[in-house]
Amino acid sequence: MPPREIRDAARLMRPDQWTILTLHFLVPLMMMAPGAQGGGCWLNPASAGVLLAGWLSWVVLLNGGTLAFNSAFDRDTGPVAYLPDPPPPPAWLAAAAGSLMVLGVLLSYLVIGRAMALLVGICLGLSVLYSAPPARLKSRPGLDLMVNMLGYGAGSTLAGFLTARAAYFGSPAACAAGGWKTVSWPGLQGPLSEQLQGVLAGGGGGVVLGFGLLFGSIYPLTQLYQMNADLERGDRTLVTALGPRLSLLLSLALAVGATGAFLHGLVTRGAGWALLLPLLVMGLWLGHLVHWLRREPGRDAGDREKGMYRALNLWAAVDGALLAAWYLAGRL
47-55 and 156-167 are packed helices; what angle lies between their axes, rounded to 10 degrees? Predict the structure, then answer.
């Protein structure tokens, strides 16, 4: 492989996007950290390796592999998220990207456990169905949105919780105070059940659902500025099917749903006035969408791209507000 092709392949993994995904991956890790448990859960001596393996398997191997795999079929010539000038994809890119995703499944299985490996494996399958013909769910309106909500939104959050579950340990009674409540998973017994137990209890389920809906809200914004390129390529995405205004209205509706899910999770956690923090930030998110909707008829691709990056900055603010409210719950 020529060095230039290797550099191009690495760029198509879009490492600039890893920062924001890393921050999002850290949110559930920090929610389950010892400080959030009131001292009841302790760090596993091997937790540093577990945390690193979780990050590598999800952020670098799965996410980076997914983006490169998608670029192998899209062959973008115009700007895509975090890559303003995408290079031509090497002929071997799809196979290499698929191998990276498979490596992510293996690493997560060996270090974190079966539940994490199952999650990464499911998202690997979704990535292939999303990008590669004949399925190419990217060109099927509605299914493209669902894949991204399940993968980037809910999946990234659940991956952080599962990594935390492997990295921290403590007595069940002590950890229950921080969200590790015992729940019943019909049909799941043994190690897999043990890894999943409690992840969605104690407010965690609301956080996972909320981020799934929140990514559904941002997804149309990532497509609006690429709408013309998608039309030229023949991809009938959600945005090309609905048009800009209906896409933004859908984004607003999903953001309202995300707000409700976050509040439900925090109320379950025992939050009081701390609910105001995520409410304030989600208000800014909704305000951004309303402002965009009012100006949409006059926006060009460049304006839409800037609006998408503003929403990504607000996503980081949502992460911070939700984490702060989670820590404050029951303390004030």
Answer: 160
Q: Which DSSP category does 151 fall into?
A: I
Mean pLDDT by 10 residues, the chain (332 residues): 87 90 88 58 66 94 95 82 84 96 95 90 95 88 91 90 74 42 34 52 84 94 82 79 92 96 89 90 95 84 86 90 85 58
Tally of CB atoms within 10 A around 109: 17
Q: Mark residue 83 as left, alpha or beta (left: phi above 0; alpha: psi -120 to 50; beta: remaining).
A: beta
Burial 134-168, CB ≥16 within 10 A → b, else e: eebbbbbbebbbbbbbbbbbbbbbbbbbbbbbbbb
Write out the two tokens for 132.
């590669």
Residue 53's identity, in one-letter code, is A
Task: Give residue 197's Cα distance to chain centre.
Answer: 21
As given in the structure block, the two tokens for residue 308 are: 């998408």
Neighbours of 87 (CB within 10 A): 17
pLDDT number for residue 215: 93
For residue 221, the number of C-alpha atoms closer than 13 Å in the C-beta half-sphere is: 29
The two three-digit tokens of residue 255, written as one number: 């953001």
At residue 57, the pLDDT reads 96
> 């690429």: which residue's tokens?
226
End-to-end CA distance of the chain: 59
Tell me the Cα Rg of the chain.
20
Q: Which domains, from first to last, does the chain contain?
A: 1-199 (no CATH), 203-332 (1.20.120.1780)
Q: Which two tokens stand for residue 71?
A: 């670029």
Written as one letter, the residue type at 4 is R
Residue from 179, 198, 174 nearest 268 by CA: 179
42, 204, 244 from 211: Cα distances, Å: 27, 11, 23
CA dist 241 to 141, 236, 248, Å? 7, 6, 13
